[in-house]
Every structure is written in C-alpha cells, then in structure tokens.
Design brief:
The protein has about 170 residues and is mainly α. It contains nine helices and no strands.
C-alpha cells in the first residue's frame, strides 16, 4: 500500500514505547491537523503530507533524549529528524516525492518567524493549540500565541480551546 498512514501512525506510537505524554500529543496533533486541513480545503496531496508530518512532527524527541543525555532541544531535533523521518516514511511506503516535503514540515514546525505556506501554517496551529491546552499557558502568553494564527478554522478552534482552559482552571 502506497502512503500507508495507518502503518506510519502505528509505527510512531510503537516507537514511543508507551510514553504517555508524547503518545497522546501525537494523536491530538494528528487529529487536529487532519481536521484543520480538511476545514481549510487543502489539496488531497497536501492533506496526506500534512497528516504524515503531524504524526512525525516530534519524532526526534525520544531519540534526542536517549542519545543526548536527556537534551531534546530544537537544534538537536532538527539535526536528528531527517534520518528518523526518512526511515519511518520509507517503512510506511510513502512516495519518494512526498518525503522532502514532509521532512520540511517536521523540521520547520517551530520556526514561527520564518515564511510559511498554508500547510506548514496548519501544522503549526495544530501543534500550538494542543501545546497550549496541554500546558495551560498564562493569559499573556495565550494572547501572544493567538496572534500567530492565520486560518479561520484554526482561530476559531484556538478560541474554543482557550475558553476550555479558562473554564477548567477557573479564571476569566
């Protein structure tokens, strides 16, 4: 099967070996990126690329923690991501033409100030929304994060996420 997304997701989850936070994070970012891509009506090819990138967006964290004395900083992740992403995508039989684009999204998903296209923007919005929900940011930080959002679907869901955080934490 070409572009075997189910196998890719299964492989990434197995790679995490049950790490609760990272496993849950993969699933949440994947689901939200899939939804946002569909809501924003990106092409079928870009949707497949987005979903694969969402699955693999933090794949280098475990490798870095295991091989750099627990240090999984962004630069180390960017250095290690290419070989991991290539390996996962080849195992899942992704089209060779998709691999550079997926790798680009994975490597750049934290480059908030760099120029970005629509697919990278969607991946960043999905990751930021989930990070915000998981880490309960201060209201000042939430406002700063909100300014980053550009897609209408991403903005709306981020606002709902913020309302949920406020309700959960009991602040307004």
């Amino acid at each position: 099967m070409i572009n075997n997304e189910a196998y890719l997701l299964y492989s990434a989850l197995c790679y995490e070996r049950g790490h609760c936070r990272r496993t849950q994070h993969i699933l949440k970012v994947y689901a939200l990126a899939k939804l946002l891509g569909e809501q924003e009506r990106i092409s079928t090819e870009e949707q497949q690329i987005l979903q694969a990138a969402a699955i693999l967006h933090d794949i280098a964290i475990k490798y870095c923690k295991d091989n750099y004395d627990g240090d999984a900083g962004q630069e180390k992740q960017k250095k290690e991501a290419p070989h991991l992403v290539n390996s996962f995508l080849q195992e899942a039989n992704y089209l060779p033409s998709y691999i550079p684009r997926i790798l680009e999204l994975v490597v750049k998903h934290h480059d908030y100030d760099a120029p970005k296209d629509r697919t990278l923007q969607i991946l960043m919005e999905a990751d930021l929304s989930i990070n915000c929900f998981e880490n309960c940011q201060s209201s000042g930080k939430i406002r700063c994060i909100k300014d980053f959002f550009q897609t209408s679907s991403g903005k709306k869901l981020f606002d709902l996420c913020v309302e949920g955080i406020k309700e959960r934490e009991g602040f307004s």
